[in-house]
Amino acid sequence: xxxxxxxxxxxxxxxxxxxxCGRVDTATPYALHAQAARRALADSGxxxxxxxxxxxxxxxxxxxVEVAEYLGLRPTWADSTAVGGSTWEVMAAxxxxxxxxxxxxxxxxxxGSTARADIRAGRRTANLSFGARGPLQFEVPYGHTxxxxxxxxxxxxxHAYGTTLEQLADIAVQAxxxxxxxxxxxxxxxxxxxxxxxxxxxxxPFTKLHCCIRSDGGCAVLLAAEEYVPDTAKAPVWVLGxxxxxxxxxxxxxxxxxxxxxxxxxxxxxxxAGVRPSDIDVAELYDAFTYMTLVTLEDLGFCAKGEGxxxxxxxxxxxxxxxxxxxxxxxxxxxxxxxxxLFLLVEAVRQLRGEAGERQVRKAGGRLPELAVxxxxxxxxxxxxxxxxxxx
Length: 392
Hints:
Blueprint: E1 11-18, H1 29-44, E2 53-55, H2 63-71, E3 77-79, H3 87-100, E4 106-113, H4 115-120, H5 146-161, H6 165-179, H7 193-197, E5 201-203, E6 206-207, E7 217-225, E8 237-246, H8 262-273, E9 282-285, H9 290-299, H10 308-311, H11 330-333, H12 341-353, E10 371-378, E11 383-391
Protein name: Acetyl-CoA acetyltransferase
Domain Thiolase C-terminal: 243-391
């Protein structure tokens, strides 16, 4: 039974790492899991015996069981919540709660995917739909793909608020600027708004560069109770607050195409952290499509509803802008092997630690950022998880 002190512990991110990312033709997803896990554990400086929790999704039939076995772990706390791209922020919230309550000492969140390599090798094909059973059966026959759903939502925002294609395209341009400072980004060459607008159409209004890239890769994040922080190799990054929310799966049940569940998860995360959006120094947001970035910025409160188009102009999202966003280049330019939410947490921690190299964000006087937010989106705005992190 946890003691009273164990039931009210602070929780820190103590280790983060990426596996090999981008074009990885020879590794399996399990190997990328293991590579990322080993690197994150080494980054933390803790012994693997401390890890008694594991969170994993997206691999195998029994994700946390199979991955734990492959990693040689026997966790007594596990999570396999799968809600698309927001999975990892939701899992981080669950893990932080479990550690704070004394149900675990240290929880490893780990992910790996060879989505790009699998298609190139013919091991899988591109899917048009997540499924054709249950509520989804009423949309699938009409070719209502994932990208089409995001495109419809973007068009609604354009109709309601006058958001322009040029403003959406500028999000891709700024993501590529950030990727230019990241040696690990898959695409680093500068692009222009005209490049985005003139590309091949995927789903109106999205051309190719409005959409995330497909890559291979993995990453891992280790969270631990505060009593282990003195033994870690790096300064802690504290979990200050989190929030989760789900919205819909059937488009007809989505009340407003211009509002994502991040409006609820963000509000909860900021309130629990005791901070405001204006306090945030760095934002890492899910960006499978340009519109996701824009609407998430609105819903997290960085600007008012309908003002996202104007907000993203003038380089505001670049490393040196007013709100550095997706500082590694995001899913639009750096990497996107599938459920990218865990990469958001890795980049946020690296920025707060001052480990981001050429892409490092600096405040006035060269100071490191103090607060970051990571907000993941799952499905077609079906779910959201938001985590606020602070430097120790």
